[in-house]
Specification:
The protein is α+β, with helices and mostly antiparallel strands. The chain folds into 2 domains: 3-49 and 237-329, no CATH class; 69-235, PAS domain (Beta-Lactamase, 2-Layer Sandwich), CATH 3.30.450. The protein has 8 helices and 6 strands. Strands 1, 2, 3, 4, 5 and 6 form a 6-stranded antiparallel β-sheet that branches. α1 (3-10) packs across α8 (304-329). The longest helix is centred in the first third of the chain and has 68 residues, at 40-107. The radius of gyration is 47 Å and the shape is rod-shaped.
Length: 330
C-alpha cells in the first residue's frame, strides 16, 4: 500500500488535519449492554453475588436444620434415658421397701394385719415417700375370699377395704391401675404405666412397680408421676430449642448483613470496573475515527485496566507518529 493511499484513508477522517467533519462511527462500534445477562456487570453480579448467595443460604439452612435435629435428638434421647433410669430407681425402691418389710415382719411376728397402718415403726417402713407427691403402699394378694386388700397406705380410708370397690370412684383410671395392681398374682413382679385422674380432673401418666415381699402374700407398690422423670429433660429441651432459635436468628442476621455487604461491594466494584472499560471502549472508538487528541484516563492505575489504558495510549501515539511521517513524505 502506498503512503498516499494510507494517508487518504486515515488523515481525511481527522478533522484537525484536513478541516472536514469527523467520519461516522463504524457500524461495529460496541453497544451499551447496561446490566443485561450478557454484560460484564451482569456476569459479575451472577458470579459474585447470585451463586455465593445460593451457596450461603443453602449452607445456612443446612446448619440450622442440623442444629435443630441435634437438639431434638438429644432431648429425645435424654428423655428416654431419664425415663429408664427413673423406672429402674422406682423398681429398686419397691424391692428395697419389700425387703425391709420382710425383715420387720420376721422380727415382729406378733404384728397383725389390722395394725399394719397404725404401728408407727412398721408404717414408716411400708409407706415411704416416692418423688414429690407419691408414697409406697403395702397390700395383700387375695386369699380364699378373692379380695385384694391394702394394709398400709398414706390414705387410711382405703386400708382393709375391698380394693375392687374403688372402680366407681377412680373411674377411667381404674382399669389401667388394676391391671398392674393385680398383675402380681401371675407374675413375680408387675410394672407399667397408667392414666391417673387427679382431683382437679386432669389425667396424668403414672408409673407403678409392684414387688412381692419374699416369703409372704404381701406386695409393695411404688408409684410416681412420669412428669417428675421428664420435667428436667423437658426444661433442658426447651432451653435447647430457645438456643437453636437464637442461633438461627443470629445466623439469619449475619447472612443478611453478609449478603448486603457482598451486594454493595459487587455493585460498586462492578460499576467502577465497567465504567473504566466503557471509557476505554469509547476512547478506542474515537481513535478509530481519527480523533488523535482524545484524553485517556486511568493511566496511573496499577491493575490490568491501567495496562490496557497505557496500551491504548501507546497505540494512539503510534498512529499519530505514523500520520506525521506520512505527511512529511508528501
Amino acid at each position: 500500500m502506498s503512503a498516499k493511499r494510507f494517508e487518504d484513508e486515515v488523515i481525511p477522517s481527522n478533522p484537525v488535519s484536513r478541516g472536514t467533519e469527523p467520519a461516522a462511527a463504524p457500524s461495529s462500534a460496541p453497544q451499551q449492554l447496561g446490566f443485561g445477562v450478557k454484560s460484564l456487570r451482569g456476569k459479575m453480579f451472577g458470579l459474585f453475588f447470585v451463586i455465593p448467595l445460593a451457596l450461603i443460604i443453602t449452607s445456612s439452612l443446612l446448619y440450622i436444620w442440623q442444629l435443630t435435629t441435634l437438639s431434638s435428638r438429644l432431648a429425645k434421647g435424654g428423655t428416654e434415658m431419664a425415663t429408664q433410669m427413673s423406672e429402674d430407681i422406682l423398681t429398686r425402691r419397691a424391692q428395697a421397701v419389700a425387703s425391709q418389710v420382710q425383715v420387720y415382719l420376721t422380727t415382729h411376728p406378733e404384728l397383725k394385719r389390722p395394725m399394719f397402718n397404725y404401728d408407727i415403726n412398721f408404717k414408716s417402713i411400708a409407706v415411704q415417700k416416692v418423688g414429690a407427691k407419691d408414697y409406697t403402699a403395702l397390700y395383700e394378694k387375695p386369699g380364699t375370699d378373692g379380695i385384694w386388700r391394702t394394709w398400709a397406705h398414706v390414705n387410711p380410708d382405703i386400708v382393709g377395704i375391698d380394693m375392687s370397690t374403688l372402680k366407681k370412684s377412680l373411674g377411667e383410671s381404674f382399669d389401667g391401675f388394676w391391671k398392674i395392681y393385680a398383675g402380681i398374682q401371675d407374675k413375680p413382679e408387675s410394672k407399667g404405666y397408667y392414666d391417673w385422674q387427679d382431683p382437679d380432673g386432669v389425667m396424668r401418666k403414672k408409673f407403678m412397680v409392684v414387688a412381692p415381699v419374699p416369703g409372704t402374700s404381701f406386695a409393695v407398690a411404688a408409684t410416681a408421676y412420669t412428669e417428675e422423670f421428664t420435667n428436667p429433660i423437658r426444661l433442658m429441651q426447651d432451653n435447647a430449642n430457645q438456643f437453636a432459635i437464637r442461633t438461627r436468628n443470629i445466623v439469619i442476621a449475619i447472612l443478611a448483613v453478609t449478603l448486603i455487604l457482598i451486594g454493595v461491594i459487587v455493585a460498586v466494584y462492578g460499576y467502577r470496573l465497567t465504567e473504566r472499560i466503557t471509557h476505554l471502549t469509547q476512547i478506542a472508538d474515537r481513535i478509530s475515527v481519527g480523533d488523535m487528541d482524545v484524553e485517556i484516563g486511568g493511566l496511573q492505575a496499577q491493575d490490568e485496566i491501567g495496562e490496557l489504558s497505557r496500551a491504548i495510549r501507546r497505540m494512539q501515539e503510534s498512529i499519530r507518529l505514523a500520520i506525521k511521517r506520512l505527511r512529511e513524505r508528501r
